[in-house]
Design brief:
nine-stranded mixed sheet, four-stranded parallel sheet, elongated
């Protein structure tokens, strides 16, 4: 829609739907930008509340560009004091041949961004045809919280007693979707134990997870607390002692002292 937007421009509340963008590359351009709404942004430019839906972007031919950027919303938006906010990509399909050697950044939301505000952007049912050689913002890559996939969340698949404060972030054709970080909570565990959550059978380290699939099964279990005892050598001249780990309220013996110090005796 827009090739370049210049300083202090704002693009907002636009929808591009049921469209195809095709680029045939046969030039030696140093950089090539392809975006459904904005190809390239400049300083203090903002893209707000824009949507692309059922859009196909394809690249063919002998593309010789050293840097190729493709984005569902924008291809290249790297400048300071700029933002991409509240945008949504639905059914975006990006295709290019694997013979292209210098594909740089491709994303359902943005191909490349740098040093500015990117928040509350989501994508649904987007597809990449081609080998991704480096990441953009979209396609279930490590791009949270800049852009997150939309998914269904069935709370009946949570173990009894597990709750979340997560709220739906988009409603599309009457269907409510969640996205991004899903915090978890439950009643306090038994004294001496802590709660561990698992998502689709995989234990998570914290009390939250990034939603990456529809209707995950979330379970919990209580695990006993353990404690680590470390031995202070107290200026010993010889000897080493490994740490010991003890479970809550389980009796166990300390390792016998192996430290020694010249001209001193250990008396216990």
């Amino acid at each position: 829609m827009f090739g370049d937007i210049y300083d202090n421009a704002t693009i907002k509340n636009l929808t591009v739907e049921n469209s195809e963008f095709s680029y045939y590359g046969d030039t030696d351009n140093y950089e090539t930008y392809i975006g459904a709404i904005v190809a390239e942004g400049s300083n203090n430019t903002h893209i707000i509340n824009c949507t692309v839906k059922n859009v196909k972007i394809s690249v063919t031919g002998n593309v010789k560009a050293q840097n190729l950027y493709i984005g569902g919303i924008t291809a290249y938006h790297p400048f300071q004091i700029s933002s991409i906010e509240d945008c949504t990509a639905i059914g975006v399909e990006i295709s290019y041949p694997d013979t292209i050697l210098n594909v740089t950044n491709i994303g359902a939301i943005a191909g490349h961004t740098y040093d500015h505000l990117i928040k509350n952007n989501y994508y649904l049912n987007c597809k990449l045809n081609g080998t991704l050689k480096s990441s953009g913002f979209g396609f279930e890559l490590d791009d949270f919280p800049n852009a997150s996939g939309l998914h269904l969340l069935d709370l009946s698949k949570f173990d009894q007693g597990i709750s979340t404060t997560a709220e739906t972030v988009r409603t599309i054709e009457g269907i409510s979707y969640y996205g991004g970080l899903i915090p978890l909570s439950s009643e306090n565990p038994t004294t001496g134990y802590h709660t561990v959550y698992s998502v689709d059978g995989n234990e998570i380290e914290n009390d939250s997870f990034i939603l990456a699939s529809d209707n995950p099964v979330v379970t919990k279990q209580q695990k006993i607390n353990n404690y680590t005892v470390r031995f202070d050598s107290n200026n010993a001249t010889d000897g080493t002692m490994d740490d010991q780990v003890f479970n809550y309220e389980e009796e166990a013996s300390l390792t016998e002292n192996t430290y020694s110090r010249t001209n001193y005796s250990f008396t216990g």
